[in-house]
Amino acid sequence: MNDASSGYFSLTDQIASLAPVLQPGTFVFCSVLHNADSHAAMAVAVGSFVEDEGLSLILPRTEAVQLGLIFDMTMRQITLMAYSAHDGVGLPATVAGALAEKGIPANIVAAAQHDHIFVPSRQADDAMEALRDLQQYARDQTG
Which residues have a Cβ under 8 Å from the Cβ of 66 and sit 6 or more positions away? Predict the structure, then answer.
């Protein structure tokens, strides 16, 4: 049920409007100490989070290599263009579940406007297919 006047969009409505977009480039997750040396990495990060062990950053792979940072795998970014309420329930879990069924790891980052999913580079096309299938299934349920 979509009640635009109250700002409420059902989980099915949200899934039906996923509109996943595979972003260009590859990304890596790195951890750096939060000190003066981290400023160059922070300047090119697309995401960050302060943890007890250090500063976790999501960086374009090329920038991480230039900075000499250590990472273990390259990822692709998929942006869900759907409306995603910060108080909504179930969208990230449903998306992660659909990808898990296909054996695709998902690192989900919720931002102010969209949710972003980072998946292993080699599985990006399969992830896009799984998300499009999920979106179509939800559309069939609402249609």
Answer: none
